Amino acid sequence: MRRGQVQINIVCVIAAAATTLSCASGAADPKAPTSNNARTYTATRAASSSTDRLPKPSSKPSPKLSTLQLAGQRVIYSYRGRTPPASLLQRIRRGEAAGVMFFKGNISSRTQIRKVIAELQKANKQSPVRAPLLMMTDQEGGLVRRLSGAPFLSQKQIGGASHPVTAASQAGTGAGQNLRGVGMNVNLAPVLDVYRKHGDFDDQFQRSYSTNPKTVADLGAAFITAQQHTGVAATGKHFPGLGAAAAKQNTDMVPVTLHLSANTLRTVDEPPYQAAIGAGIQLIMVSWATYPSLDPHRPAGLSPTIVQNELRKRFGFKGVTITDALEAGGLKAFGSTSRRGVLAAGAGMDLLLYSAQNVNEGIGGLNALVSALRSGRLNSAAFSASAQRVMALRSSVASTY
């Protein structure tokens, strides 16, 4: 799929009386930015009305989703071991799952994980949601790879290559072909953080291209473009940027606050995301760090100010937002993972990543979403819009099965 292009969009209308979702295919947006205008994709264009980019409804019959199925479009599950549990397959058959995230412990060989993904997608064909499941993993390159094979170079090695843009493009193509070869269709990469010092949070595992925002922007856009040409969606992370985090400021473990001015965030940390949006990136993962200059009260992924105003309105991102791991230690002040999922959904996060490798965690999150939707704690129109974006993504990605 060409960057910036959505092959199938889905318009969703929530019926207040029945709380169902009606979906129909529509046309792609001809105004989506390309790499030629990535640098000129300004806040002015980004802040313009999104109504001109909404897909048009078709007259085709529309499947209707129950409240549980609607909520399921927000949930990414994970499990332990090499065999998907029956409870996960059951949820998939019911249409109560958007996708699955895989870890190294789920994979013993390419043949094994290919068979697992085929089994999951076969179960999905019995569901009322007529689109492939999102099959995702972290395949950044270098030390951070869940699946053996490309990309072999780390992002820092790519940044230091003699021809870095070419190296980034080759890594994107390699990642996409590698993942698609086993049936995966989403990569939780590239990292778009602009690291600051040797050995800091990103640099200790060579996860950042550079300390230069323009370099990160150029190489990230090259990786994204090349990977998405293979039919595998890319995910930029961790908006608005974790590049200033010190080595021990790991949101997976502890709460992290980054005292950066809004000007620093907007001139150093955020430009790679603007370039990624210009390159047509399909997903953006939002950080669990707190940024007091933007929102002093909540981590970015729980902040409507950051998700809705900074990412959606300021930069005009129309794709899918995805949380980092909901069980992260950085969120310990915000209750259970189920409660965190509701808060994230309320902030505008589309996909909720239940990555503790326990299907029951995802089921608990699903039930919490249903309760919040039925009680009115979550806005039904906003919930519908999130499901619309996820289903459009599901319809656009490659599926081998």
Q: What does this entry look like structurally?
A:
It is built from 13 helices and 13 strands. It is of the alpha/beta class. The strands form three sheets. An eight-stranded parallel sheet has the order 12-11-10-9-6-5-4-13. α11 crosses α12. The longest helix has 19 residues.
Write the layout of secondary structure elements.
Layout: E1 9-15, E2 20-26, H1 43-46, E3 64-65, H2 67-72, E4 75-77, H3 86-93, E5 99-101, H4 110-124, E6 134-137, E7 139-141, E8 144-145, H5 155-159, H6 164-182, E9 186-187, H7 213-229, E10 233-239, H8 262-269, H9 271-278, E11 283-286, H10 304-314, E12 320-323, H11 337-347, E13 352-353, H12 359-375, H13 380-396
Helix pairs in contact: 6-7, 7-9, 11-12
- Please outline the major beta sheet: 8 strands, parallel
* Rg (CA only): 19 Å
Please identify the structural class as seen in this structure. alpha/beta
Order of helices and strands: EEHEHEHEHEEEHHEHEHHEHEHEHH
Strand order of the largest sheet: 12-11-10-9-6-5-4-13
Total beta strands: 13
Task: Give descriptors for this structure.
single chain, 401 residues, alpha/beta, 8-stranded parallel beta sheet, 3-stranded antiparallel beta sheet, 13 helices, 36% helix, 12% strand, globular, disordered N terminus
